[in-house]
């Protein structure tokens, strides 16, 4: 699948680069190197700031032990930040490597001395893309582990898309030919296969989790809303790989589940109305159930059996309604 389709699902983030004052016109832009220490310092600072803010609010509110809820809230923030550190830093490093490699490859040759520098930069850029490819392959193996979550596959798919976008830009710049160009294109083919594998795995796994969650919900609205989120996951993957039959089958199954939930909801309301003697209201609600039962997602045999049963209930209620009117 081409990168244009993939861009619909993974939009590229705008990249900004800082330049020194003296070399603004002659040196390539460089992104700031990711710092794990800096990330931890920011996380600790946020947690401390939250602690003192909540402590101050609770003290003004007259709380007898303001440090307890404030400490609990700041601890939760810190734990979340620490748990996300590996994913955030991993993606930051990959993007840093790719960005530096791309900008090294874009610089032209304007003098013999700068030509020598440009040649070394091109070589460095090729090694950078190789390092990024190894990182993606390593994370791919980790995501395929039995205890991984769908989000891990989505992270790898995002990194694959970043790699494909970056290498496409490098190839279009015209600085890669011969062996280097062949190497980069070979890497792209491997990454495209990984992108498809992990994106589809994420869509299937995430939609399965959300469908199971929808089945456990008590309210009809919550069931439908959660199931629609599962459909959104499948639609996102289908925009990139529209020919995947398994995704279409999963989408049909979830759509049928949503229709069945709505039908069951209106049938239940109709039964309650009939029990209370509100026959006209019960008939209207049975007809609402018929509307959802006749959706395309419902299998023909299920639709036929359900329609026969509901129409029989409607006929029975209409008979009772006529008998009531005749007695009046």
Write the layout of secondary structure elements.
Elements: H1 3-9, H2 36-60, H3 67-106, H4 112-143, H5 150-172, H6 178-216, H7 220-240, H8 245-275, H9 279-293, H10 300-327
Strand elements, count: 0
- The gyration radius over C-alpha positions equals 30 Å
Helix share of residues?
over 70%
Beta-strand residue percentage: under 5%
What is the approximate shape? flat
- Low-confidence blocks of residues: 1-30, 101-124
Can you count the helices? 10
Q: The biggest beta sheet, please?
A: none
Secondary-structure-derived class: mainly alpha
**What value does the average pLDDT take?**
77
Q: What is the helix/strand order?
A: HHHHHHHHHH
CA-CA gap between termini: 71 Å
